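To make this tangible, we now present a fold written out as tokens:
***
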Amino acid sequence: MQLNAEDGRHRKFIMVQLPEETDAKSEAYKVGYKNICEIGKERIRRAGKKIKEDSPLTTQNLDVGFRVLKCDSSNMKDVYYTPDEVEQNLFENLADNIKDDRTPEDLLFQVMLDLGVTLSSQIEQIEIAGKRVFTVADGFLMACFDADVTEETIKAVAQQKPYYFVMRDSSMANDSVATNFEQIFATYSPDTVRKVL
């Protein structure tokens, strides 16, 4: 970040830290840092703040933000990857192929990884027809994981012509939306690559 402040470039970096717990007797633990990752995040925040304070005129547009990602298992239930190995009578329990404890952000980052979209890409949340839609890299990828997504939302997204659009199968408000999904994109944005989880 300091080098970017000095020469105006836009270097990016990845830091990796195991979540090693801090000693319960340490000062770090006593002030609330339960693991080394928490200390690392605070050090990055402080470094960015200090760089900007030291040179306020030349660092107005300096990006000192960062994302914290954790390795985890897939967001998808096993049936998504191995449908042939699932007994037919289990399908009623598997109406949604996404694990219950996953957030829309979890799904977005997995989609970004699957599609080869850089994890440092700019992500915005916008509202389209009352639904939260993620737009990544200035609309290159758009995704909606809200419930009860209507044709109005699908049409509004298609009219923005993203390269990729991703949504959950269970997000579709009704059978009509599912039936018309492909036709809406064929009409408004036929080149958009569509993926339904």
Notes: The chain is about 35% helix and 10% strand. The two ends are 37 Å apart (CA to CA).
